[in-house]
Records
---
Amino acid sequence: GTFVVRVSVGSGMLKIDEVLEFELIPGDAFVSEDRFCFVSHEEEQYDIAVDAECIQLHAQGEDASVYLQFQKMDDEQVMELTLELKSSADCQNLFEGLSRLISMHPVYDDDDDENDENGEYFGQGELIMGAMQQQQQQEEDGERLREQKGSEPTEDERQAMLDRLDSVLVVPPHLEIDDRNSVAGQFDDADEDLL
């Protein structure tokens, strides 16, 4: 699709399942109508293309950085990418581009009646990464990466995830809610089902 955003990235840190990690990779980030791409200035193996449906979370950091959490639709392995941009303006442009990308590709709940029989209204999201080739090579060489089991996270793990998100999520000043104008109890009669 048509490019929405292109920014130059000072460095990127890619973390795959807390095992495979690349740090300080300079490159360019692109957001098109269909996907997010990171193209390394160094080697192809660091290039990443992520379809919109695979992006689970994106957040803007205080220090001109953007955080992405994504995973392939049929895989439990969660990957994280933190991009350190050269300016606050580039950071804002990338964040807005990602927000637009996500809004153009809503993900519907599996319980939604409008879903197809497999519960996948939007199809199979694709994730293409040069780094994944290296992971496959490591597995072929007998270096097994830790496999995540399908078990639910513990309360401590959930709290650690929430703490991590709180540390990277930033509400821009123009979107902050001013508590001074709120009235105590103004939402007491709200329908609980909508909350």
---
Amino acid sequence: MEDFNIQNILFYPETLSIDFLEPVIQKKEVTQIPFQKIDIQSINKKNNNVFIIDKSFFLHPENTSLFSILKQESLLVLADENNHFNIPENLIYQYIHPAYPKSAFIKTVSNVFNTLDQIKKLKQTEKELIIAEDKIDELQAVGLAMSTQKDRNMLLNIIVRLCIDTTGADAGTLYLLDDNPEDQNEKILRFMVNQNFSLNIQSVPFTMPLDKKSLAGYVAITHKILNIKDSYSIPESEEFLHSKSFDEKYNYITKSILTFPMLNRKDEAIGVIQLINKRKHIDVVLKDKNDFEEFVVPFNEIDERTVSALGSQAAVALENTMLYDSIQKLFEGFIKASTKAIESRDPTTSGHSERVAFYSVELAKAVSETTSGKYKDTYFSPEQIKELEYSGLLHDFGKVGVREDVLIKAKKLYPDELQAISYRFAFARQNILIQAQNEKLATAKIENREEFEKKSLEIDQKTNESLQKLDHYLEEIKRINEPTVLKSEDFGILEEIEKISCSNECEETDKLLTPEELKKLKIPKGSLSDEERKEIESHVLHTYGFLKNIPWTSEMKNIPEIAYSHHEKINGKGYPRGISDKDILVQGKIMAIADIYDALTASDRPYKKALPVEKAIHILEMEVKDNHIDKELLDIFVQNKIYEKTRIKIEE
């Protein structure tokens, strides 16, 4: 297993001053490497390497060999998107516009290191999952009852029950070796299970030292089987003793005892099983002293050989279960890391994946309980429910493959674009004032005072009108920039602004709006252009591409397909495949409803208000009318008030 002490390295042109990045340099412990020519051989690919490049990068053609060794977005390009260098788009994390605020620059550098770190951790976790699954495949087959049990506590009870039934014992206890919480260099015995055919009791968990003073401790240390005919006749010369406190407390008589170790494949003791009072007849209940005298017999050699084999099988089954638990925890960690990676790219949707997973699971459970309609015979097993939950948590993972500025775009223009427009308007405003001042200077030559004052007044009126008009247009641009439905008159306003010149001294254009800005402001609905919307929609393809490369177990094999289907529509007009009703998994249809509902009601989106439940349900009903989502599934969602269950869960 690799450790995650990976260095953060920032390569930047030596002509570039990055003093303002000191906060993130300190916080992320970033090593700075200025360059003219990049020494490709010296780059450690295991590190998080981020490169700031500008046009000076291409003064040395050999620098472009860097592109051949990069495998993920790690380039910050100092240029706007219209100034394309010959750089593979899949390597560019973000373009940095000249007008980009320094605070945003700092945040971008922090985010790119966060993203690279998450990607490395996810790749490492995927490797660990593969290794762990390989280990499971290597485990020896054990008895069906043990090998199919994945719950450790249930398995331990099954092990004791099998040992009791096989030997005819009246009772059995099981201890596991565990680390001493007070001293990690020492082991203790942890009492786990007690079963007694003759007594109906609930034992209190406890621990005891791992030493030779107890029967269980002696067996765990020596790996020997102890077969004691009568616990009350143990010679004083023996290292071990048997405590009589249990007998005294419950009026029980412990006579014959068979204690044996659970040895794993490395011949290490991982636990101890203790069987008590072998009975002549397995259905005998030991009630009084006469019963113990008449029906309790010593364990024999066949019992010893039997429990020896059972102990080995039990150890293998237990290790199998413990490994399964370990893989479950590892996979849960992988899921959490994936969700965290998504949220680091798109903080505005924080919590969305968890809510979609919860809605989906609750709706699937409700479907399983439905007794009428087309889903009356549909049942989701616990494994399928878990599969759906994981699908919900991972359904948006592909967003890590979408440019961050597009992913979090809240308005039609990017902040730096609106700021650039404001600068142009301010410049145009200044030009109007300068022009007015020049005109007033020219009127100073007029000798007639009345004519002079009249001319000055005309200049002031014209200047004020021009400034008011300019301010009005800027406010209109800010209004139109909101992600609302564009009105027909708004197109006319934009056409008026399009004709206005700023000044020939303005950089890049003498118009107040560039063609690209004008195109974005004319987006009829929402904040995304067609190209940006397609890029956002590509997250489904990225998700599928990532998930299909994971070697899922048979119980989880549908995760890629479920996540792949959550934007498909019943009528075949969804994306990315445009498949219709019969080709969409029921789980995918369930998740589609969960995803839409949460998008409508989420309160963590800065660019829109959360809708009340009633309004969200109404919109979902319109989706049904448009043949986008499944009517019966929505009916189940509403009838079972899944949203209320989720609200309670979130509040908890």
---
Amino acid sequence: MTALKELSIDGTSVRQIPISIGNLKNLEILSGFKCFPLTYLPSSISYLTALCKLSLDGAKVNELPSSLGDLLNLRLLSLRDCRYIEELPDSIGKMGSLEELDISATSISNLPNSIRNLQSLRVLRMDSTFIRAFPGEIGNLTKLEELHASWCRSLKGALPGDIGGLCHLRSLTLGHSSVSSLPPEISTLSGLHTLDLLHCNEIEGLPKLPPSLICLHVSSNRMKAIFSLEDLKELEELCLSDGDPMAHQLPSKQPMPESNVNRMIDKQSFSISFPKLRKLELSLSQVIKLRFELTDMPPLKRLKMLTLPGSSRREVSELPKTLSVFKLYHSAIEEIEGLEGLEALKRLDILNCKIQNLDRLGQLTSLRSLILSECNYLSLPDLSNLKSVKVLEIRRCKMIHQIEGLEKLTSLEKLNISECPAENTVQVQKALKLQKALKREIESMDSETETGDPL
């Protein structure tokens, strides 16, 4: 047994790891994944000098031995979902080889200051913990590439300026935390690709962001201004929201400190001119006009998915022809200009909007899915040309009394017409019956396939 290199007690009923485990001098991997009854980790674990991976995800261990820091060759320590662990031993700072630390969903509220000594650390995960602040001198973790602290409700206030020392940081996720501001030093993180600040409702503004960003998610009910993002030419995914438009308050007239704020842009008009953008979700409650700048070199030609949830926006101009998914939610838009030009569009969702007509809808011959809900002013044109549509859902649309061309949708696989006048027409009832018959036939064929045809 002394030659054993890997020991897995994953999913077992083991309650304690024996003291004698220290005799396994060659052990490299010890895994107790979902070993729920496990409550005790002996101090003799420190004798496992060859150990490079220790995973106790989901165990009921409530205390880590102070000798844990003697595992000088440990590269991965995962304590995810160990809800009874409240602190890490100070000795963890001795783990000079540690590359990945996961304490997500534990009861840990503070990180020991010694964590700044983990010079090899590349990934730090502490999502859904009670962490109140980042440790002092976090900038010492110069090899850190990923820092995850989403759903840390107790994480409040401003991030420390030391974060600017994380010169290799690629991903910073703080969504659903109570962080109130980012330091200006974040602009120096030249390798930062992902910044997630979704539902960080204490944030009122942002400093200048590094031009290396590829994915930016920001939403806050307290956002007082939308800042110029024109330097973010590498952006491929952008989600930007200033909160629920029904609950939105006008921005304060007090100017924000110049040191904390990037250049503000007019919230009455918002331009999109990111040449590499593929996915955009935009919910700005004061934006009335949204412009897509198609004259830039190179033009905005990669955008595939556009989602426009809740806003008072009344106009969208020059939609990119590359769109394959377009979602419009809770909007004051009455007409979609250039709809007929979306030759690549495969999915169109319109929910709770004031839109009145989709006259050019029949020209979207690539459309696969059409979902309309709670659009009480909307009437439909003839759908006969939508030969590729597989999904058609129309719910609670009071002005849709009939669906012309429904019988010609030969690719239709899913039909749901409910709580609108068209629901009771002979045409729709016939189509629904046909759908049910086809479903029964498919289920019957599947059943025969499972049981096997009798010879």
